Amino acid sequence: MDWECCWSREQIEPESCPYIGEGEEDLLVSQRRRIVEKCVECPRFKNDLARMKGSGYPLSDVLPYILTEFQEQKAQMGAMLSFLNSKTREIKFLREVGLVLQTSLDLDEVLSIAMTAITAGKGFGMNRAFLLMTDKDRRHIRGYLGVGPRDYEEAWRTWEDIGRSNFTLRQLARDFQKTKLTSEKVKFHDILNQLTVPLADQGHIFNRALTGKKPILVENALNNPDLDRGLARILGVDTFLVMPLISRNRRIGVIIADNCITHKPITLQDMQSLETFAFPVAFALERASLYERLQEEVAKQKAANVKLREQQELIVKMEKMALVGKITSSIAHSIRNPLMVIGGFARTLLKGTPDDDDKRGYLESIVRETRQLEDVLSEVLDYSESLFPVTDFWDLNELVGKAMGELEGTLEQAGVTSRLELAPELPMVRIDYKQISYCLKTITTTALACMEPGGELRIESVLDGDGVLLRISDDGKPLTQTAQEALIAPFFQTQELGEGVGLSLCKSILERQGNSLTIISRPGGGNTYSIRLLTRKENI
Amino acid sequence: MAKLLVVDDEANIRLLYSQELSDEGYQVVTAGSALEAVEKLESESFDLAVIDIKLKNESGIELLQRIVKERHTIPVILCTAFSCYKDDFSAWLADGYVVKSSDLQELKDEIARVLAKRQRGAYV
């Protein structure tokens, strides 16, 4: 019998079978392999089988069953092989990604590898992915990064570039971190901004995925009554995958992935693969975020320590200097009066001594030496005066008037007016004039920093029991609790008060003299700084 | 002849002032404490007071305050061993300020200046 198909021949010519393609020439001489790989699928072979059936061969009725079973088995084998191949690829890929994720403490590197893995063809091959993360105070999930093309043109261009390069996934991620991460953070800004969701909104699909700890595949989102259509509109697709990122029961964030360009269906296998991937990503993201925060805290602590050390050194130095100053001042002061008497009377005697008197030389020596000693004393006193407070009784209203007079130019420059409401007949306060004047000027300057042009600074003095209260009130923005705490914690740095030690120094000065400084932010706006200065009851 | 009240708690200094200023042609009355100074101010009239800022157990500034409040017409020159008061003080309460020295020329000049100013009518 002449058969249509070539199955009966040991060797064939290339034109005998149209299904043998280039590179498969060895099938021309291998009958067994040719039958298994080509003939069982060939229509000519099927025709031969049909003809055989009518020829009365006993096996001809059974052969089709065997063939069908063989084909099914072959198909199953093929599917399993494909599955195995894909799993092998996935394991290899996950291993590659896992290595980076397990070792990296750099948040940007983790983000780059994770997002590249989801979107690269060598990875999960999704068209686009968005990463949303829970914010620091753990109240919202916020859009953090979007990766992928915005349109077809960009998609083809990117995929062509990637196709031409022979980068591994890790190289792709590095390239992404180096060249694209910053621009990608900005690229999807509009979409990311709209993806903020409160963690308390339990009905939202993001929170449902986080609570259920399972990915959710959203299909036909625009017509799904259970879904907020807004999300589909924002994303511009109606099929997308919401993948929760959970690490040790902590909600880290969510990944949204879609095929916005190819519209390729997202399969169950895609979901399972991404789910396997999500765990190390969540863990790595959490670790990298914590590390980043830790680094920030360490840097802050280091800076604070440096500042504290500097300030401690300064305080120790100042205290030493103050002590030295106090001692020298006390000695110098007690020497000055006798010296003045000695020198003064020597001058008096000198005036009545004739020029030719032998005593004149001695008296001139006394005057000269006394003058020299007085000059040395003046230097010592001038120096020591600057090192320790000279407390005395002063009229606070006079001090305020003078200090504010000196600040006239500063106030004018700030466009701020001042109003003095000074109570008459106040008892005198026991203060170091220069230091309190410094405190008033520092507080005024601090208040001015919070004020807008056109504002009014009110300075009041009132009697307050056994003290006098000096209140400086601005109408600027109220200081935050942190700024106020800056007073209690010296050398604390705030944005509002800067890094100076002005106010904490004032507090320290005032407290050393038994006085106090408090600051109150008024709810309606403005701040009031109150200095309470002690008086002495038995004023003369 | 201008009449001066010198207030200092050091007897020798009062003596020195008294002698030197008398030589300059002033009539000098001295007081060793703020209390004594107040008593003298109440019983006599003076053209000028020279007060030491540091009196024993009391402050020359407080005495000055009292003089300013109760006897506005009498000019005051403060004397002290500390120069730090000068900047803060001369601008307002006292009419003059002198750092204590064995050379009384500065004090004498300051007295002459303040009295001349008074004569021009500034303290009437």
From TrEMBL, chain A:
Reactions accelerated catalytically: ATP + protein L-histidine = ADP + protein N-phospho-L-histidine
Keyword Transport: no
Domain Histidine kinase: 330-537
UniProt GO MF annotations: phosphorelay sensor kinase activity
GO CC annotation, single: plasma membrane
Keywords associated with the record: Kinase, Phosphoprotein, Transferase
EC number(s) from the headed UniProt entry: 2.7.13.3
Presence of the UniProt keyword Magnesium in the record: no
PANTHER family from the UniProt entry: SENSOR PROTEIN KDPD (PTHR45569)
Protein's name according to its UniProt entry: histidine kinase
UniProtKB/TrEMBL annotation, chain B:
Domain Response regulatory: 3-115
Annotated positions of the 4-aspartylphosphate modification: D52
Pfam families: Response_reg
Keyword Phosphoprotein: yes
Record keywords, A-Z: Phosphoprotein
PANTHER family referenced in this protein's UniProt entry, alphabetically: REGULATORY PROTEIN (PTHR44591:SF18), STRESS RESPONSE REGULATOR PROTEIN 1 (PTHR44591)
Protein name: Response regulator
Organism: Geomonas anaerohicana
Phylogenetic lineage: Bacteria, Pseudomonadati, Thermodesulfobacteriota, Desulfuromonadia, Geobacterales
